[in-house]
Amino acid sequence: MDDREWMYTGRTSQIDFTSEWMMKTNDFLELAFGECAKGSILVLCPHDICANRKKKNNVDMGKHLLKNGFVPNYTRWVYHGEAHRLREEVVRPCVEHFDAGAGVADMLDDFHEAQYAEGRTEVEMEATTKAFYEMMSSAQKPLHEHTTVSQLYAIGRLMGFKSECSMSREHFDGLLTVIGSLLPDGHILPKSMYDSQKLLCALKMSYEQIHACSKGCILFRKEHKDAKYCPKCKSSRYLEVDSGDG
After folding, report:
1. Residue of 24, 57, 58, 61 whose CA lies nearest to 46
2. Which of 26, 56, 75, 182 has the most neighbouring CB atoms within 10 Å?
3. DSSP labels for 117-155?
4. Exposure b/e, 184-212, CB count within 10 A at least 16 = b
5. Which of 19, 32, 21, 20 minimizes the C-alpha distance to 59?
6. At 147, is the secondary structure helix, strand, or coil?
7. 49-58, 72-81, 93-102, 195-204: range with lowest mean pLDDT
8. Could you give the 3-state DSSP secondary structure of residue 50?
9. pLDDT digits (tens, 9 = 90+) for 81-134
């Protein structure tokens, strides 16, 4: 991702802006409008007042940006040609790391392709798609101001640890409380498993606990979902106890 600091440091007023700001703002407009830059197409306007809620044409958007500047913290241009970059740079690497083999990354690819099939562009994204990318961008915010570790990455690591250790909800909530008390004020680590699951579900990343062989041979899913013993090492899926009746 290119350095986007110029968006906010290169312009202090509508009469005080750098040549870099003007040049890169023009590049932004070309990206946003593409080959229709000279036409009447309307695109969500990212200036400080419209805040990606109202649509403008190329000329009016340029005037708005010159007069009011960009909306704060809009360094990922998900409404203006970079939705796919967010997916490739952030979403896919994260879900591949924590959801290997589960197909979530491929699901996100299918979701993206369905949204832009048959010539559709980011301009035509449905409200649900926009909400998804907004949530995804929000989840990438650092846990606190002194780290680059994102909220989503931290949740993925902790949920993976919970599953690996077969940790109860109560113990997981306690772990989050302890970790949260060690982080700086203003951190955004969820306070409970409920809050963690809520965020993952909002990102269409459902959290499901799957039994695994105690020796790490297989996961009891798909063709093995009803098996009581590992087909490779014959280890029991469940803890076996003597009930007294054999």
Report:
1. 61
2. 56
3. GGG--GGG--HHHHHHHHHHHHHTSBSSTT---BHHHHH
4. eeebbbbeebeebbebbeebebebeeeeb
5. 32
6. coil
7. 93-102
8. coil
9. 665 555 545 554 554 444 443 444 444 455 444 444 444 444 444 455 555 666
Q: Which long-range contacts (CB under 8 A, 24 or more apart) does 237-246 make?
A: 237/211, 237/213
Look-up of token digits 């958007």: 61
Dihedral angle sign, alpha carbons of residues 184, 188, 194, 196: negative
User: What token pair was written down for 192?
Assistant: 């409970």
CA triple 96-102-103, angle to 5 deg: 75
Which two structure tokens, joined as six digits, stand for 172?
């997981």
Q: What pTM was computed for the model?
A: 0.40
- Could you tell me if 106 and 118 are in contact, meaning their C-beta atoms sit under 8 angstroms apart? no
Distance CA(14)–CA(21), nearest Å, equals 12
Count CB atoms within 10 A of the CB of residue 137: 17
Write out the two tokens for 66. 């010159």
3-state per-residue secondary structure call for 52-70: CCCEECHHHHHHHHHHHCE
Strands 11-13 and 16-17: antiparallel
Interatomic CA distance for residues 27 and 137, integer angstroms:
22
